Amino acid sequence: MKPGNLSPLGGVVPTPAAFCRMIREAQRLF
Questions:
Q1: Around Cβ 15, how many Cβ atoms within 10 Å?
Q2: Theoretical Cys-Cys bridge with 18: which of 5, 10, 14, 30, CB 3.0 to 4.6 Å?
Q3: Helix/strand/coil for 12
Q4: Is the per-residue pLDDT at 29 higher than 80?
Q5: Are 1 and 20 in contact (CB under 8 A)?
């Protein structure tokens, strides 16, 4: 998965597309 934009807190925030994909993967796995 490609890294998203860097957030002010120093963490990595996934892009909308990556976030939606992450949710679909989670729903499929769990």
A1: 13
A2: 14
A3: strand
A4: no
A5: no
| Amino acid at residue number 17 | A
User: What is the token pair recorded at 29?
Assistant: 């796995």
Residue 30 amino acid letter: F
Any idea which residue has 């002010």 for tokens? 8
Which pTM was predicted? 0.41
Predicted local confidence at residue 19, as pLDDT: 78
Residue 8 contacts residue 28 (beta carbons within 8 Å): no
Mean pLDDT of 8-27: 71
Q: Which residue has the tokens 């996934």?
A: 14
Judge contact between 1 and 22, C-beta under 8 A.
yes
